Amino acid sequence: MNKDQYALTPPMGWNSYDYYDTSVTEAQVRANAQVMAEKLRPFGWEYVVVDIQWYAHRPGSMRERFQYIPFGVLAMDEYSRLLPDSERFPSSEGGRGFAPLAEYVHGLGLKFGIHIMRGIPRAAAHAHGKIKGTALTADLAADPSSVCRWNPDMYGLRDGEAGQAYYDSIIELYASWGVDFIKCDDICNTDNLVEHSPGAYARKHEVEMLSRAIAKAGRPMVLSLSPGPAVAEQAWHYQKHANMWRITDDFWDDWRLLKAMFHRCELWQDHAAPGCWPDCDMLPLGRLGKGFGEERSTRFTPDEQRTMMTLWCIFGSPLMTGAELTKLDDETLSLLTAREVLAMLPCKARQVLRDEEKAVWTASGPETGTRYAALFNLSDAPAWVGASWEELSLPAAPGTELWTGEALPLREGGLSACLPPHACAAYRFDGI
Hints:
By secondary structure, the chain is α/β, with parallel strands linked by helices. It contains 13 helices and 21 strands.
């Protein structure tokens, strides 16, 4: 199956990590999925993704010392494949895996996804575990020189028959569960997040192996690669083998990180296409951080939240919210359901100008031809931000501000607005 036949628009959904870290349970996933179905699905939100260590027993129980417990107890089948921890995901008992949970999510009209670490469990390699459908064993597939710097669960896979057979076997299992989305970690950038070091994309063969396994399984499964920053020189490879790839390290609610995303989006603005989406990472909105021991509301100001949503949408990034959906406040819900802003997905976008104080983007809808422009005040004080119609490649035209719905009268010379610190304005221009 050709990966470019699905994820034709940037995937939108919920991911458990920002609120639950490693500790999410089945009941919590079901509760968030129900809220998504009721409140967000009409606006395009559809993926429900269980993030890291769903296979680990009592993860987070040593959080004061470790995010990932070294050599913890992992649920695994006879073929070296990780299974959901049945204490946290009781419907998985009896070898059913995530199939019952996926069925529940599908019953809500949504799609189901899981996080995986690249490679094979180290415990399976040490035990010479079996690989389904072959006489090969896990120790032959594992590359003992390849261990994630921050999670001790896995060895990377060798580029060979055993490694491919193992990836084929896990993707076959996920397809049987009804998985629609796979977020693979420690694979988009594998050298401690240094973009231009020799090992930054050292495991590209594992991306290829996963891509082949998904094509062989015959089930549409979005392949999302983490963490970033992705290596720009390898854009062609990400586009060929994956549907999404992270262009940044883990993104949190810190203005400095948000301001830096304008540079990252500039680097990747020419590489978005149906089935291939540079990923700005999750939207840290609403209630966050319970799994990290610091439950709180987002630190972003209301203006910064609008700036983030506007940039992600005009750039064409996938949208994954990490908010605890059962605790959605009206302000966060209004951001996630801003239909006119979400309508910019996907666009053909370009950054017109950027410096330390401001940024301006313009875009056009690929099907409707609708034109957009967004002004961003990156400074710490109120400021005028603008660009000429020539810079925007637009004729002088009236428009509509997307967040307020206010009409923009025709202005000669260009588009400009006086914006509060870290704020934005986004405009739609029809009929030009």
